[in-house]
């Protein structure tokens, strides 16, 4: 399964092995947003939504994140 982790300064990490090994996490969406990301929710299939400071929303579907809304 996939695991997504979000954090400071727009950090988004994804693992495709369920997070079984620390080395399996890769950074995606570098420089997409500068706000801290605070939550992530699974939608369906390969779709995730990420929320952060000031209401920023990032959609993760496929291989690249997309900025949905920003203040």
Note down, in words, how this protein is organized.
The protein is mainly β. It is 0% helix and 49% strand. The protein is built from no helices and 7 strands. A 4-stranded antiparallel beta sheet has the order 4-5-6-7, with no helix packed on it. The mean pLDDT is 83.
**Could you say which structural class the secondary elements and strand pairing correspond to?**
mainly beta
Shape: globular
Q: Strand order across the biggest sheet?
A: 4-5-6-7
DSSP strand (E) fraction? over 45%
User: Whole-number radius of gyration?
Assistant: 11 Å
Largest sheet, in brief, is: 4 strands, antiparallel
Mean pLDDT metric: 83
Low-confidence stretches: none
Specify the helix fraction band: under 10%
Helix count, per DSSP? 0
Query: Element order, helices and strands?
Result: EEEEEEE
Distance between the ends: 32 Å
The total strand number stands at 7
């Amino acid at each position: 399964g996939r695991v997504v982790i979000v954090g400071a300064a727009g950090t988004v990490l994804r693992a495709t092995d369920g997070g079984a090994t620390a080395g399996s996490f890769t950074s995606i969406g570098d420089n997409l947003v500068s706000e801290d990301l605070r939550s992530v929710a699974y939608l369906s299939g390969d779709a995730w939504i990420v929320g952060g400071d000031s209401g920023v929303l990032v959609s993760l579907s496929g291989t690249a994140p997309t900025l949905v809304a920003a203040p």
